[in-house]
């Protein structure tokens, strides 16, 4: 029907930024390897290129994680909730359900965070993405450049994608510089390569600037253990909003995203800690109403 056509059009549209980036990268490969072709640089170039495209691929094609079954309302709870039309009695039901879940965050007004669309009690740091139309665990943002939600399942890949794409651009800029200067001083033979060498330098240096700012910002977020959404609006706990609510110190914050094993840090393979539904917080003990059973959430002092 009409809705189906609209949806397929949207699906095609959403891939345009990814196709755009892929075409630029493919051209940059052609320009560097075939046209510029500085043999001594080619080995290092390919190492960076492979890491960059691998991380990009993983960020695009790793499915975002959705809340586990235990966060979804049971059939009887759904019926119960539907029958109540007052917000307060609905909250009563949700509070009862949330009691058995490892949840520490609340809405700004202190209510249980509930997704009407998915009919579930939102785990901590989980948000509903309007593009994916799903609740995404530790949602960071919906990224059009990868046509995917960046969240718990692929945040490490996204960080590596930023790091390696930046490295890729800096590498090209640095090694292309001398030929770029020769171009302006008319020291280059007038061939087709001239055009590619010039635009390679422009594109790589321009992307370097924008990627560097994004990368620095996300490094700061990792160090502070905040998602982009949490940086915009601090998560609220029972005692109120606290922008540092999930921060466990620099080393533990980094390990939550990159894992405990150093040998996995540079590669876009999954190594993040935790299950994405519950997160250790130093504020657990200030929340007497919530369970702290080891089955549900790790002890606050251990990651
Ligand atoms: Zn939802
Ligand atoms: Zn999304």
TrEMBL record:
Q: Where is the protein situated, by its record's location annotation? A: Membrane
Looking at the keywords, is Transferase present?
Answer: yes
Bilayer-crossing residues are 12-32, 38-57, 157-175, 195-217
Look up the domain of life of the source.
Answer: Eukaryota
- Documented EC number(s): 2.3.1.225
EC supergroup of this enzyme? transferase
What is the first-listed, main subcellular location in coarse terms? membrane
MF terms in GO: protein-cysteine S-palmitoyltransferase activity
Provide the alphabetized UniProt keywords. Answer: Acyltransferase, Membrane, Transferase, Transmembrane, Transmembrane helix
Q: Topology with regard to the membrane?
A: Multi-pass membrane protein
Domain Palmitoyltransferase DHHC: from-to ranges: 113-232
A Pfam family this protein belongs to?
A: DHHC
Listed under GO cellular component are: membrane
Reactions listed under catalytic activity: L-cysteinyl-[protein] + hexadecanoyl-CoA = S-hexadecanoyl-L-cysteinyl-[protein] + CoA
Q: Which family does it belong to?
A: Belongs to the DHHC palmitoyltransferase family.
Question: What does the UniProt entry state concerning the protein's domains?
Answer: The DHHC domain is required for palmitoyltransferase activity.
This chain belongs to the protein called Palmitoyltransferase
